[in-house]
Each structure stands twice: as structure tokens, then as C-alpha cells.
Amino acid sequence: MSDNWVIQNLENALNTWNEKLAEIWTLITQSPQQFKGGTIWNVMVSIHGAIQAIGIALLVLFFVVGVMKTCGSFAEVKKPEHALKLFIRFALAKGAVTYSLELMLALLSIVQGVISTIMNASGYGAPQDTVLPTEIVTAVEECGFFESIPLWAVTLIGSLFITVLSFVMIMTVYGRFFKLYLYAAIAPIPLSTFAGEPSQSVGKSFIKSYAAVCLEGAIIVLACIIFSLFAASPPVVDPDASAVSMVWTYVGELIFNMLVLVGTVKMADRVVREMMGL
After folding, report:
1. Which among 14, 26, 135, 158 counts the fewest CB atoms within 10 Å?
2. How does pLDDT run across 202-216, given as a tens digit for each residue?
3. Cα separation values, 235 from 8, 93, 198, 245, Å
4. pTM of the predicted model, to two decimals?
């Protein structure tokens, strides 16, 4: 690393960015059972088991209410075809509540397979590191004390933006895990609504919302791959420009690309929901 304070400041900010991007790349391929050693997942499984009993009770309630609203009289229930339809609905809803955790993990596993396919197809084993061009390092190191004063201001602002964007992006990925845990813990209650025809829309919305959270990972990976392609072709640096202009132009364009990436990552949920018509 250079001994110049300006270069050190920028390189430290870029190192933070590269570390967070690499962490995202690792986290996005992890399952909730692996995240943070599985401690959080074990607690959510315990909560899920406790709520499952409530889901079974609600299952009966939604089934009775559904029968009362969809059947004009008790005579309709006695018809074999109608009774069979009600039995199948109840059995499927009971299976969804009983095996809700397995069903949700199966859906997540499918999406994780999609994410792995995207990563393998892109040819990137890890995100491309963002580094300072040699021209900027040389130009800054050749600056005198008074010439370095405006560089300090540009560097402080640029480094602050890069560091903040790094943490905003990683917080979004952590937020996805929070949502996965919340959906897993509460799943038996919304899935119990499948027992009644009038209430089944709640269960459908829950499944769609959960699928959207899972698919956020695919959008985040695609965004990181696109940024890596940008990082592989850094902004063109004019060697004839002053050091301040070179740093300002480079940092400005770099922050713009980072803003696009962070914005895409933060809007991953909205993008998937629009795709799924939610």
C-alpha cells in the first residue's frame, strides 16, 4: 500500500467495498440453516413448532367457515363429489401446515439452484475487485502539499460515500435473511387458510411473497455480476489531467456505478414482486 494518505484513504474504502461484495457473494449461497452457524434457525424452528399447533386449530376453523360459506345447505355436503372435494381440500391444507417447513425449504432449495446456475454461467467464481488505477496513484504521489489539499476533500467525501454504500448493501442482504426467518417461523398460520375456499387467497399471497423473498437472491447476484463487469472495465483516466480532476472523475463515476448496484439490490424485492404480479 502507498504511503500517501490520500491513496491510503481511497484504498481502505475500496477494500471495505470489496470485502462486503465478497461477503454478499458468500452469504447469498448460504441457506438459513447455515447462516450464523444455524443458531438463529434453531430458534425459528422451535417457534415454528409452537405455532404449528395454532395453525392446526385455525385449519379446522377456516375449513368450517369455508364449508358454511360455500355450501347452501347440509344436503350439498352429503353429495359424494362435494364431500370428496372438501376432504381433499382439508387433507392438502393439513399436509401444507404439517410439512410447512419442508415445503418452504424445498422452494428455497429450488431458488438456490437457480442462483448457483447464474453464478456458474457467469464464469465469476467471486466478484471482481475494484482497485485504483496506477495512473491515479502515480499522479497523487507526485503532488506537493498544497496540491494535495483539494485531494483530501475529494477523498474524504468519496471514501465516506463508498463506505456507507458498502454497509447499506450488506444490510439489505442481511435483511433478506431476516425475512426468510420470519416467513419460516409464521408459515403454519397463513398456510392454514388453504382449508377454506373463501380464505385461500391469504395462503396464495403468502406463498407468492415468500417466493419473491427467495428470488431476491437471484436479482442481487445478477446485480453483482453486472457491477463486476463494470469493475473489470474501470473508468478511463486522462493521464494529462490534473490529479484532482483524475480523482474526482474516477471516484464520481465509481460512486455512480455503486449507487446503481446498491439501488438495484435494495429494490430487488420490488423488482421480483412486479415480475410476479404482487
Report:
1. 26
2. 888 898 888 888 888
3. 20, 56, 57, 13
4. 0.78
